[in-house]
Write a structure and sequence with these properties.
Number of helices: 13
Radius of gyration: 22 Å
Number of strands: 12
CATH topology of the largest domain: Nucleotidyltransferase, domain 5
Shape: globular
Largest sheet: 7 strands, mixed
CATH class of the largest domain: Alpha Beta
Bound molecules: 5'-O-[(R)-(carboxyoxy)(hydroxy)phosphoryl]adenosine, zinc ion
Strand content: 15-25%
Number of domains: 2
Distance between the termini: 38 Å
Mean pLDDT: 96
Amino acid sequence: MKILAIETSCDETAVALLEAEGTLPAVSFQVRGNALYSQAEKHAAYGGVYPNLAKREHSANLVPLLDAALTEARWSVADTTPITETQYTFLEELLMREPALLAALTGYCATHGAPDIDAIAVTHGPGLEPALWVGVNFARALAALWDVPIIPVNHLEGHMVASVVHEEEGVYSVVSPGFPMLGLILSGGHTEFVLAKDWGSYQVVGATRDDSIGEAFDKVARLLGIPYPGGPGISKLAAKHRSDSATNMVQRAVSIPELPRPMATADNLDFSFSGLKTAVLYLVRDLGELTEPQRAAVAAEFETAVGDVVVAKTKRALVTHPAHTFVIGGGVTANRYIRKRLQELFEIERYDTTLTLPAPDLSTDNAIMIGMAGYLVHLRGEPALSWSDELRASGTLSVDPNRTRNERL
Ligand code: KG4
Ligand code: ZN
């Protein structure tokens, strides 16, 4: 099955082309084209993602990225896509708030024919609603022009699927040892445990009560003068502190007080990160102008505190919900220290559970994972939509049908 995948839930605009094969558990994917544009630098000036800017950037970049992906795959067809009057009226209405996207798309259709694809997978939630709408409407527009069905994908299912594929010579195969599977989403928007009986059958069994883990990284980064997105910057500083400490280059004077490990010992699977962020705020205020080694020490203590919380909660989650597979997904899983802490935990505890980690390039937002999840949605027989069916973007979409909104547990 040839899938065109579109991701616009936050500040990454991404289009990927995949060829998917097989039935579960023997599913494999070949990525034929992959085009991704990160808007992070543009949002850095605002200190975080600015929804209207994200929406504008998605509108401006989707057609060039589609073109790049189709060209890379050699699926691009030099021809024209005829647009009937009825289709044009539909497109005009659909993309009413996206005139630049409408113009770029009709321009593209003048020189490109319909590629040979079987379905369009698109993220319809959760995420920033204005950003999601651009991707959803773009998918519907392409579906109308090329007469292909749409598979709506939950972004968080994409993150989980990204954790269980193993790449070898360009072929990604699903390597999950099976169900029940426990997932831990660690992203910019979410921090939650998801218990899965099967693909598509999810229950959220723990979640953050306030900030997400990614937000904590980004907010603490700001306090330390690291531009958005702060996760990678904190990670680098913390690694420097650890290696300097190991080689005794850091003097004792740099040691800083311990930060709290919020809810690490609480008898539940919930998280809380806002107190940790506030503790960093007070610490930074008390320390005054930070020296470079102090900045690095604060970053390391913060990352260690977060790692301690993730490990403590994972231990508790695996006792409460013994699972065959433990998957992690979301941008923060790109963090080397947190990956290492989880790997160490699984080595020490010798669980009967296999830990799977997403490849670093599939950890942060991308369209490949959306195409993969779209194929699983198709395999489980969920009906695809036609361009004329209603498809709404939902900022608060949950993987758990009993939680229509991402309300706190
Ligand atoms: O999954 P993602 O790309 O977008 C959402 O779905 O939210 O996650 C983005 C988050 C940001 O908060 C970013 O700072 C964080 O992932 N992140 C990291 C690292 N790389 C990205 N956090 C810690 N360490 C990293 N290396
Ligand atoms: Zn994400």
